[in-house]
Known about the structure:
Blueprint: E1 2-3, E2 15-17, H1 20-46, E3 50-51, E4 58-66, E5 85-90, H2 98-112, E6 116-124, H3 143-152, H4 164-167, E7 178-179, H5 185-199, E8 209-213, H6 216-230, E9 239-242, E10 246-249, E11 273-277, E12 284-288, H7 293-303, E13 310-319, E14 329-338, H8 356-370, H9 376-380, E15 381-389, H10 401-408, E16 411-415, H11 418-428, E17 432-440, H12 452-478
Parallel strand pairs: 1-3, 5-7, 8-12, 8-13, 13-17, 14-15, 15-16
Antiparallel strand pairs: 2-6, 4-5, 4-6, 9-10, 9-11, 11-12, 13-16, 14-17
Helix pairs in contact: 1-2, 5-7, 6-12, 7-11, 8-12
Amino acid sequence: MAINTPTPSHKSSSMFHTDAPQALAHVQQLYREQIDHLRAAMQRFVAGETPAAPVHAYYPFVRIKTTTVAHADTKLTYGFVEGPGTYEATLTRPDLFASYFGEQLRLLILHHQVAIEVGLSDKPIPIHFSFADNDHIEGSLSPERRMLMRDVFDLPDLESMDDGIANGTWRPHPGEALPLSLFTAPRVDYSLHRLRHYTGTAPEWFQNFVLFTNYQFYIDEFIRLGHAEMANEDSDYIAFVEPGNVITRRKGLPAEAVDELGTAPPRLPQMPGYHLVRADSSGITMVNIGVGPANAKTITDHIAVLRPHAWMMLGHCAGLRNSQQLGDYVLAHAYVREDHVLDEELPLWVPIPALAEIQVALQQAVADITQMERPDLKRIMRTGTVASTDNRNWELLPDNLPQRRFSQSRAVALDMESATIAANGFRFRVPYGTLLCVSDKPLHGEIKLPGMANHFYRERVDQHLRIGMRAVEILREGGSDRLHSRKLRSFDEVAFQ
Length: 497
């Protein structure tokens, strides 16, 4: 049965706003109308009705036009455009990003004294990105109806989801507006969709500070600490979220309706995520990314769209110096990139600098948790180059070529993820840092043996994790404005943080 399904016109007139909350409210209204239209059409399609014409909905846009160079707040590295011109961004999930969008729009109005134009873009919303978290609509369709769906609704288009803006390779067509944001709306939606899959948790739960690890031992300890925080009525954290969106509220806080929707999965997702939630989203998210640079790139590609204030790697490494002891810490101040997963996006000739704010926070956190001061601190923590490789069995390569390169680079530790996480932080303008723990010394014949490894993990994991969490506290207390360094901004930088 064919039915007429009117599609809201994306040619409707836009509106100008000089008030950021009003501009945001308009974006939210447009997005809600478009999503409601898609969901209603999809529900009818699942019920067996077929529209007489394809069904479309469109992302909202925000746009500014300026004829002058900004007189921006010099303390900030974002919130303004570099020069005269027309700048535009498509937006998605203005409910999830309400605080973020509101702040970016406020700064643009403040710095440029211009109105924000809000309207519907010509970028269609793929039907898959309109589903709510608990919708499983497509699975109820027959194979024939799923094929027909391609003709009725817009599907994800990879051409609109590349990272050209972030990579510095995007060039406008004649008459095309310049970007306001590193990511287009479809690219953001794609990553939000993948985050659910990889971490087993909804994007809404992700916090502004992210810890990565390559060992489940750290996650076990994070779970223990998370539940301990929930038992403390005086904790600044209000909830602890585990895969399947299983929510534990802090003692004394009532359950909420969303809590009933959480269900522990039958098996852990590929890169399980856990969230210690604060009311202002300044809590801690921890993800076990597993082993290897491909995983590290995958998860940071997606978390980057959430615009966290910092991410840091806490994991194990091979110590490359004879003077190191098992259990010593390594604070990375440089990286050798032998991971090969970002060679196309970020060439090897691009240096990955250490960020002072992160370095200081991590060093101070080690001192605070171990209760050591110099020179004792230097005895257990070495600052130096970390090499990351995509070859887990690098020791077996002939002629000792890797060892030679590591020596020439002055590397003090080796892992498989840290350089990737740092490089993607650099690429996506997310402050980054690395603190590793020496778990073996293969160049010196010290490899973990059964029993020895278990003892090592019990001794060090708790302390290492507490150091990472203490570093987050230091960064939070220092304020996010200090974190977004000019080191991470290009010549023609987008306005959005």
